[in-house]
Design a protein that fits this description.
about 150 residues, mainly alpha, two-stranded antiparallel sheet, 4 helices
Length: about 150
């Protein structure tokens, strides 16, 4: 497999700096195109699952995503992990497929995937902080425990 970073071969004219050309990986067996962005996407997706479980387990919240809630009810936390893993794989495949045809479009798609995945993580962190400082009620502080506190 070729390295996507290519340096011009020797000999170079005296005093000329080497030229570095960065090319996206190509071909059916090439590595992923945006590995750095995928690491961030996987990290943020893992945080989403962890924080979702935290607010459900410790703060009595409910999952508002219908599909994720169904997976949680049927299979527990492992259902959430499986669903998230499936979506992560799908997004990476889509970004790579698009990126092999249109590099910049695939890159922007990967960056949007990260940005959109950060939203529920930030919201969960804010909610945990607000409950921790007492600005939001805990489930036992609600007047009617039958009404779930939805995050």
């Amino acid at each position: 497999m070729e390295d996507p970073i290519r340096v011009t071969p020797d000999p170079l004219p005296a005093g000329a700096p080497p030229t570095v050309v960065i090319e996206p990986a190509r071909g059916p067996r090439a590595d992923v195109i945006y590995p750095g962005r995928y690491v961030w996407y996987i990290f943020v997706s893992a945080l989403d699952v962890i924080l979702t479980e935290t607010v459900i387990e410790h703060f009595g919240a409910e999952e508002v995503n219908t599909i994720a809630n169904q997976m949680l009810q049927e299979f527990g936390v492992m259902g959430l992990v499986g669903l998230k893993l499936s979506t992560v794989i799908l997004v990476i495949l889509i970004c790579d497929t698009v990126g092999r045809r249109q590099y910049e479009t695939g890159r922007r798609l990967a960056e949007w995937a990260i940005a959109l995945s950060v939203v529920p993580v930030v919201i969960s962190l804010i909610q945990i902080a607000l409950v921790s400082v007492g600005w939001l009620p805990t489930p036992d502080q609600l007047s009617r425990p039958s009404d779930p506190f939805i995050w």
